[in-house]
Specification:
The chain has 25 helices and 19 strands. A 5-stranded antiparallel beta sheet has the order 2-5-10-7-8, with no helix packed on it. It has a 4-stranded antiparallel beta sheet with strand order 1-12-6-9.
Length: 709
Amino acid sequence: MRRKNRWLLAALIFIATMTGKDANAQNGVDPTKLPGIVVDNVASELDGKWTPSTSVSPFVADGYIFANGPDIHTARFEIDVPAAANYQVLVAYTAAANRAPKVPVTIRAADGDHTIYVDQQELPAGPYCFHPLGEFFFESGQALVTISTENTKGAVIADAVQFLTADEFELAKKEAAKNPPPLVAKSAAKPAPTAVSTKIEEPAIKFEKTAPSRPLARLTPAELDSLLEQYVTGISSTAVIYDEQFLRRVSLDVIGRQPSAEELEQFVADASPEKRAAVVERLLASPEYGANWANYWSDVISYRVPEPELTFLNYDPLKQWLAEKLNQDATWDEIAFQVLTADGKVGDNPAASYVGFHQANQSRLAAETSRIFLAVNIQCAECHDHPFVDMPSKTFHQMAAFFVRTDAKLPWNDSSEIEVKGKSSGEYKMPGTKGEMQPVAFTSTPVELGSGDLTRRGELARWIVGPDNPWFAKAYSNRIWARLMGRGFYEPVDDIGEGTEPVLPRVHAAVSEHFAASGFDTKELIRLITNTRAYQRGLNDDTPQDKPFAAAITAKLRGDEVFDSLVAAIELPNFTPPQEKASAAIRFPPPPKSTRDLVNETFGFDPSLTADYLTRTMAQAMLMMNNKQIQAQVDASAESSTMLARLLADEKDNTAAVNALYQRVLARRPTDRELEIASKHIADMNDRSAAFEDLLWSLLNSAEFTTRR
């Protein structure tokens, strides 16, 4: 007899055994007496409408649940995996003719998601009432098995999930026929599911600002200029840039776009000696300030987050949350604290995106938390002691221990439903060791073993954002200085460890202390830097190595800055095509890409990279030349109603029109040579509309348009 037939015979014997005991009792198999790890349906998380039943035997515990399509209903079973190993995964169900013949069961293993289809009209092909789905490797922690009604016809049964080691699986097969498992006693209460985590009820973690242990000094822009002159002599006499250059630079830096023609005209006409400081205040008060820097920090996070299978990560909720916080003058320590301690669904609490989008992966969160908020790269110490600096591997794994009880549930195709929550048990063990590792972050106090998830993350966050932390203020001030001045005191900006040689460390220390003294006020740091002569000097890409920051240097615009500048220059619309419908070939179509998405994808880059890695690409050139939405705006015909069409209708003088177009697109007036070339081209073309279309196209496709200068 073949092995499968022997298992089917065992299942039939088991049914007869159950029925012979008491046909009316409808008592199920006692899950506590089964081998391995068993999670009953009472412990599953349900979406949609599921109905309990005991109509068909055999089943586990007090019954099973069922649901029918065409709506999608899911039952998610979380399994606490005690140790990394291969496990045979089995699901329990009751077979009948009205069952669905192709039930999708998705297993989230260490190497990703695997979907197995089960014919529930056939008897389970494994021990007792369980059906084997295959053997998979799982890391220690929580695994997930999801049963769904998607694309099914008939009733879908969800009863229990079982994880067995190879030895347990072989033994269960041998014992199936001769030793059926005992049933739940008829009068017994519903058994508690085994190996199921229940969230510890922990008090909500609230941010509380703490005072520094010593007085901290603040700087004025003049004092910062003097400090720079002290270490980089001979730069104080350098002339500052003229008004048009300054307004474009500061607008791009603060609100992420170039100024409009109207803003430029008003600023140039202002005769006040304090107008530069005044415009900085106006830009900081604009809602675009928060949106711009939310885009920046979203990029800092997202470029190091791997995209999970079957889910497209949507960063818009996180960007909106960050923008609101920044515009409400929330300080950086408060924002960082909330990001590190957030729980719940991303759609309800967007701050949970950071932990949730990393799928609560302990190693990634340890490395990224240190990199983003402390600018200390510890990832090299994950597998061995750091090869270049004094950082033992233990340092990495002590940081990872803060996240050992953090969990993230990933649904299909909707990142807003990702839920961050705590696990009731689990301690971290460094690979190759047996002892449980206490959570410790560098100089912080160890957290006691047995502490809950929020307690651990709360202690870590409190230490990170503390005013006495030697890395927190330096990490942020280095990033902002790099974005405003073209390069940081440390390069790359996310590595201020002992293995990186700093530039002007005393200036960096003074700027960082000012930031901490301000209470980590994000606007105050930008206000300080943009009001210095150092920031307002002419850009210089050829500054000698012995005179760093004698002037700021040019930099590429981020993708969102390019798009917003296109909006300001030519009123580029943000077109989004309709969502593609699901099909047999593409079950989860990706979200449609808007014009903003396309520009951001093409011009975007990881803000933590040094300028050496940020090259101009053919894809960028092709998008600016050929994108349909951009091309439609380079149309001078009267019926197009574009910016260019209106400009030519309002301004009949060609010289005035050229000047207006330059100010609109490049936020400056043309040079005499540029005006001469443009005027000659207009005269040679003998077609005013076509000539100005050529001019607009050339300005948009110039390197200057996508460069911060």
